[in-house]
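F.,

This is the one I mentioned.
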């Protein structure tokens, strides 16, 4: 391996260690022949070989792919040595372009610095009112469903709320029906990602009509913000991007579009999916809702903590980032195993969160893990629904806040009664229910 060394120093040599244990190719072939989900292969590798395991996919690759679920190894890759394990590309690049989720190197550092202040502390307080208004709008709609007995789709409702919230935060305007219709193309592209061609041009062509609709919405929003049009609550995140363009030449119209779409995708798809799973889990575990409401009076810190625990336990089952791909830029020792430069490394929070060696009875929905001291693993690599380290999700606090506020409005008033529930999960950018979630509302 060739490395660049400082003058007078020796190149860093790849360390020596044991080979990463590798899954029997016959088992991989059996999995491929059965048409199983990728998560099934991961689970088999973890169960047979432990928290650092390898397997080979495709036509005899020279270097196997390494799966990481052990908490210490997770922390090593994501938090302690992010420069050795980098993002090479993003599955959603066809949609988000060079937005902060897909950016790398210095470009990523600049983009993240600009946005980070918007999602912590004082920055978050700017969006409190917008989150509350979106939650009240949803609560009013649910009150209507309860009066009429209308059948509605819980997943659609969660997407509608989350999209309204992020749209208000981006533009200062509530989500209007026309914009909502056009932005349905975002979900269509996200759902299509696993089946898109590997070639970027071909992938663009496969979803060209949806991308055109998204670009038209983004172009209109950017033009309105540039003309000084602010919503009732004042300027939003889009105005921050436009102000940056005044002093930073890299913020072209294309990059502003990419950041806007990135924030739309990251700001509503993951939250909507989490809230949909939460209601499906409460349908199977109704006592968890009752316990959360009994934890304290409306508006109390105790109830808020209990509601947040519902969200956290849902994220343990279905983390927003279920898989985090990285590429080793140099040789390294990972949990005692040698990792060659160029190795694809897959960190899988989904499996870490379900490890019986870390979590007591991991298949049980138990929000008390997040309210009772000592109930959850202490190691930071054990629970990472939004990732950890410098590339952890910027919107973590935003997502938790909007989810909690909505649930504080809905949980006391309504219990969805599902007409049917999805039989399985679909694994794409997020882990989402693979099917509709029709329901009516009881009092």
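My design for it:
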């Amino acid at each position: 391996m060739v490395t660049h060394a400082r003058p007078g120093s020796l190149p860093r040599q790849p360390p020596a260690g044991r080979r990463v244990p590798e899954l029997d190719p016959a088992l991989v072939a059996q999995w491929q022949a059965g048409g199983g989900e990728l998560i099934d292969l991961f689970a088999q590798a973890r169960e047979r070989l432990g928290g650092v395991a390898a397997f080979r996919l495709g036509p005899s690759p020279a270097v196997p792919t390494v799966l990481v679920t052990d908490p210490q190894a997770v922390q090593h890759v994501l938090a302690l040595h992010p420069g050795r394990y980098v993002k090479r590309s993003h599955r959603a690049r066809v949609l988000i372009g060079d937005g902060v989720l897909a950016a790398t190197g210095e470009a990523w550092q600049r983009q993240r610095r600009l946005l980070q202040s918007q999602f912590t502390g004082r920055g978050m307080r700017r969006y409190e009112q917008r989150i509350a208004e979106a939650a009240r709008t949803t609560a009013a709609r649910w009150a209507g469903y309860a009066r009429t007995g209308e059948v509605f789709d819980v997943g659609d409702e969660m997407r509608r709320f989350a999209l309204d919230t992020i749209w208000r935060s981006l533009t200062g305007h509530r989500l209007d029906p026309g914009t909502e219709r056009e932005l349905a193309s975002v979900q269509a592209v996200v759902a299509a990602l696993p089946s898109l061609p590997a070639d970027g041009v071909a992938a663009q062509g496969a979803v060209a009509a949806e991308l055109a609709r998204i670009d038209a919405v983004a172009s209109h929003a950017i033009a309105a913000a540039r003309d000084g049009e602010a919503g009732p609550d004042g300027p939003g995140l889009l105005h921050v991007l436009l102000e940056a363009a005044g002093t930073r030449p890299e913020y072209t119209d294309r990059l502003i579009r990419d950041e806007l779409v990135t924030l739309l995708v990251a700001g509503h798809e993951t939250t909507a999916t989490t809230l949909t799973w939460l209601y499906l889990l409460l349908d199977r575990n109704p006592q968890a809702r009752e316990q959360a409401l009994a934890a304290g009076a409306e508006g109390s810190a105790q109830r808020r903590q209990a509601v947040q625990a519902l969200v956290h336990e849902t994220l343990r089952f279905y983390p927003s980032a279920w898989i985090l791909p990285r590429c080793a830029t140099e040789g390294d020792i990972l949990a005692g195993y040698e990792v060659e430069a160029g190795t694809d490394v897959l960190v899988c929070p989904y499996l870490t969160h379900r490890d019986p060696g870390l979590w007591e009875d991991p298949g049980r929905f138990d929000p008390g893990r997040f309210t009772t001291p000592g109930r959850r693993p202490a190691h930071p690599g054990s629970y990472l629904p939004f990732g950890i380290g410098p590339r952890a999700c910027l919107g973590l606090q935003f997502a938790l806040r909007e989810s909690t506020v909505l649930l504080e409005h809905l949980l006391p008033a309504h219990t969805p009664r599902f007409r049917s529930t999805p039989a399985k999960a679909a694994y794409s950018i997020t882990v989402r229910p693979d099917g509709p979630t029709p329901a009516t509302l009881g009092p």
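The chain has one domain: 18-442.

Talk soon.
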